[in-house]
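Following up on my earlier thread - several people asked me to post the actual chain instead of describing it. Fair enough. Here it is, all 208 residues.
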Amino acid sequence: MCTDIMLSKITLKNFGIISPLHPTRRILPLTALALFAVALTACGSGDDSESQINDFAKITPTEKIFSIEDFQKIRFKTSNEYDVEELTGVISAWNGFWTPSGTVAKEFEMRFYPSHTDAIELGTSLALEASGETALLDEEDATWLEGLKDRRAYFSAPSSHGSGTIQPMYGSYAIYGNMVLLCEGANEEQALEHCAAIMAAVDPIVAE
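Reply from S.P.:
Thanks for posting it. Predicted structure:
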């Protein structure tokens, strides 16, 4: 469909015979061809990104080592850098906002470990208690208290006069390479869609 749209904008006149008496007329078809090539590349990139999001796995083993700088390059806005002294094995932990295509800004928490193995072995249980239906949002229950308030989402009914229920901000988590990623969402499916979108932006798959 993307290709059809671009083709409709490139008329047959652009590809007519060029008179040797008017060499400057070569610019138009060359420009058209260049635009067409760019359009094909853009369409292909979009398809690759969509496929990567659809195929996203909750656990992704990779030897790549990520840091917060990789996310700042895609305009991830950091809100807090957490004190990780009591978080075993973690190099750094952050929370902030990023906007997936077609939606509004979503909140994420990122915990960076030395390796994928460390992220799995040291980070899984803590990710479970920070997200989804298994989230522990009370101080007396949570293992790691740093950033606990950021993991809470408050919902109030129209007639509640300010009172309401506390739900987990992060609907689920993903472990991608050396990082544990907590993603905002009303449920696991929605949260993993947001995890997939941000990782597709940070670590895009390049089609061969």
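Residues 2-54 form one domain. That should answer part of your original question.
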